[in-house]
Every structure is written in C-alpha cells, then in structure tokens.
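CORE FACILITY INTAKE
Project code: CF-77B
Contact: R.S. (postdoc)
Sample description: multi-component assembly, two entities in total
Requested service: structural model of the whole complex
Turnaround: standard
Below are the sequence entries exactly as provided by the requester. Do not edit them.
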Amino acid sequence: MLGLSALWAMWELELRRLRHDRLELYTRAVQPLLWIGVFGPIMGAIRAIPTGGIPYTSFITPGVLIQSTTFVSIFYGLTIVWERESGILKKLLVTPASRASLVVGRAMAAGVRAVVQALVIVPIALLVGVRFYPHPLYFLGALGVIFLSSGGFAALSMLVASFLKTRERFMGIGQALTFPLFFASNALYPVAMMPKALQVFAQVNPMSYVVDAVRALIITGDTSRLGTDLLAILAFDLLMFAVASASFRRIIE
Amino acid sequence: MALVYDFFVWGSAITTSNIAKVYARTVRALDGVDLAVAEGKIFALLGPNGAGKTTLMRILTTQIRPTAGEARVFGLDVVREGAKVRKIIGYVPQEMSVWTDLSGYENLLIYAKIYGIPPRDRPRLLDEVLTKLGLKEAARNLVRTYSGGMIRRLEIASALLIRPKVLFLDEPTIGLDPSARKAVWTELGKFKEGDGVTIFFNTHYMDEADLYAEEIGIINQGKLVIVGTAMELKRSVGGEVITLSLKSNAFAPERLRSLSFVQDVIVAEEEVRVVVQDAETSLPSLLEFLRQDGVSVTRVAMTKPTLDDVFLKYAGTRFEAGGRVSEVRQMRRMIRRG
C-alpha cells in the first residue's frame, strides 16, 4: 500500500523535524500558559461564568489546548505555501504517491505536530493546578481527538492557502481564521451565554465539538455526547480532505 | 494499431505531439511542441526565461495537464497513465526540493519511504546514491549547512533512488559556481554511462547545453524552433572561419579555392579568411598546403558560430537580449534604492 507508506513517511518527517528544532514548540506554549496561568484564575475569581461546578481554569483548559493545537494546524497550511515556493511540492507530485494521499498525509502530519504541542502544554496545566480526569485511556482518547481534528483544520488551511499562494498574505489570514473559531466556540464560556446569532455559528463550528470531546475526556469524564462529537469531527475531516484535495490543483498551477 | 503504436515509441524515451498549454485562458506558454528524445541520450531544452521550458517539463512529469496534444514517456501517456510514468522517472525541480531542517540522510530516507522502496533495500540504496554523489561524509549533517552544489547533488541523489529510466532536471546548475556546476555534471555523466538513463534537462545557459547535451532543442515563445546536436546546429548557421595572417606576398587565393574542403576565401587587408565546414579538421591540411606553396603563416585564429548565432537564426532574436534589458533595469532599481 503505497498510499499508507506515504502517510507514515509524512508523519515521520514531522517528528524528525521536531526532533531537530523544538524551539517552536516552546514559544507556542507561551500563549496557552498566559490563558491558563493568568486569564483563567482572574476570570475564575469573578465566578461570573456558569461552568457546571468545574473551576474556571479547568473549564477553559481543553479550549486553550485546542486553540493552541488548531493554531499549529492552521499554520501548517503555511508550510504548504512555503513548499509551493520551494520545489518540495513539485517533487512530491512526481512521486508515485497519489494526490489524495499527499493531501491527507500532509494534513495528518499537522496532527503529529499538534499532539506533541498538546503534550508540552499539559504539564503547564498540571503545574497551574488543573485537575485532570484520572483515567489514562481517556487522556489517550483526548490526544486521538486532537490528532484527528488537527487533520481537518490543516486541510482547511491548505484550502485557504490554495487561494492565497503567498506567505505574506497568509500570516494575517491564519489569525483571522483561528480566533473567530476560538471565540465563537464553547472554549471560554458555555454556548448558551452567547448572542443568538453566535450560538448558531457555534453549532456548526467544528471547534465546539472538539472542545466538548476533549473537555469530556480530560476534565469531566462525562462522555454522553462523545459519540456526536466524534461524528461531527469525522464529518468535518472528510469534508475538508475532499475539498482540499479538489482544490489542490490550484496550488500546483 | 499496436504495431503502429510500437513504431511510434520505438527507441524514443520521450515523445510529444503538438503539445500546447494555455494558462488562465490567455497566456500561451506552449504552442504546439513536437519532440522525440532518444533513449539513453542527454537532451537539453535550451531557451531564455519564460520560453516554456518549465511548463513542458511539468507536463512531461505529470504535474500539470496539457491544454492540447499528447506526450509519452517510454510509451506511457503522461495524462492517462501518470501513475505509471511517475514510477519510472526521477525529477529535480528548479527550486530547492529538500527539507533544510533535516539531515541529507533523513531527506533520502523520507523520500525512499514516499517512493515505497521496501525497507530491506533502503540501506543499500541510500548508501549507493550517497556514495555516487559524493555526499557520504556530510550525510548526517543538516541540509541547512550544505553548499548550493551539495544541495543539488542531494536532490539528484533522491531522484536516482528509484533507478529511473528518465531523469528530468529543471535548470540543474542555476546559481551554482563553475566548479560546483562541473562537479554536478561529472556525477551525472557517470550515472548516464553506468545505468543508461536518459537525461532531459532545461537550461538557459548556452554553454551548459553546448558542453553536456548530446542533443539540443531550442525553444522560444512556446515553440520548439530547432533540434540537433550542438555541432549540427552551429554548422547549419554557416561555415566556420579560419583567419590567417601571412608573411609572404606571393599568395594566390585561387589556389586555396581549389581545395575541396574550402567553401570561400576572402582576402581583407593583411588577413585571409577561409570559410570551411569544420575548422578543426581542415586546419592541418590547410597549413600543410600553404607550407608546400611556400607561404609562411604568422598567425592563425578560428571562429565558430555559437549557439547564440543559432538562436538568432532560428528564433529571430538574440538569446540574451530580453534578459539583459531586464537585468539592467533591476540593477538600476537597486542602485536607486541603495
């Protein structure tokens, strides 16, 4: 199975790159540290947000984690733009690997980066005093959810990258994409607190489902909605893979 | 039908028929290219920037589809049988195609996996290409620390991993200094001799095509204007000229004209210009003839047509003209900024 071996190779590529240069992992951990270490405790002290009995910092930890890993995946599209400017994309296109396996492989490679990023942030959360749900399988499940959802977000960013094509334009768009997803989700506050229009958006916002699933797995242990969340994430992934593969031609030409 | 088809591709590694590519419905990058490259040859597609070289190579390597026409690599259609074509070709794009944040060895390892080379063959193959391209010692260093020539050789090494039947190189020595350029071609030459691979390369350096290609196709504004060996192309422009300075005044131009290999003799002041087909082989006979006639020669010079003359004749413009003007403009802009 050439498609599969190409997938594995892309993941290995990301792990090897991370092994040589870990600086980005640490610098990207600064922002989550501020959310969990500063924003969380201060907002939590007001006790204005109904979290269902969970300490506020614990409530936002999954959201902050997902925001951070989504950022990693969204900016992964940038790598593809960069590879378009260099010859790597051209070279990959001339290997026997299929185009769909290239798109899915590159997208899921973002998942590798995202999971490693999550593993850097978790100890910070522990230090700050966030109480995780004490079940290793649940924790592994959460990493699986992060891996899976990152692929979809990376494919989304590839799609956007296929329209932009230059690095400079992408920097701004990356931010403009991540923050609306973050703020219009259940990451920092329950969806019920939002204005009606935003609530509708939060319902179709994939990040809401990812945060919900991860919150269930690492904080509350209440997995009653996990099935729906996973279905929503899978649907998002498949849709993004399909659309990104279809628009891949635009990146090439 | 099968017979006709076999005849069509027999002995040819690459054939194209009436290939055209139009970008964004208006830009005609290729305008009906017919080409046949024989198996085992080194073929250069020579043309100025923007002539359509890269577009043709990207079509032949199955990256983009032609707007019209047909292209085959070892009989395989590049559009309908792209996956099969990709299994027998190696490709080095013009831009850098390795990850600089990995070592040279890791780059090859990742590409070997993407190519689907079985694990048991990988160590031997990697070792082989690294040795062949003189990168064994630097294999464990990050590519970031490599020179331009080393990066090019690493890229060629990765293209050779699958032992391709055709190697496509897009501007293989662009930006390299002369010694690195020579090193790259020395390695390529060895590989061509050893494995009989067909090499198809794009270049805008006339001397590179002249030195290393066995056959040259000249392309301009999306059209292939002429194909032939460097020698054939230059001869087609006109004869070569041997310019002589003579001591003796007792010289009769008619005597020279009677020689079979002499095409024309022009006497101009102190100099005699003899037009011949091939200056190098004619010169000894010519000098011998003059010596027997008692004419002593004080100075000899040979001038040959260059590929630039070829380009002028067939494309109607000077090769570098466009490039030079834009370079001058760029330089001026830089000076203004500085």
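Facility notes:
- Chain B is about 40% helix and 25% strand.
- Chain B has two domains: 2-233, 239-303.
Invoice: internal transfer
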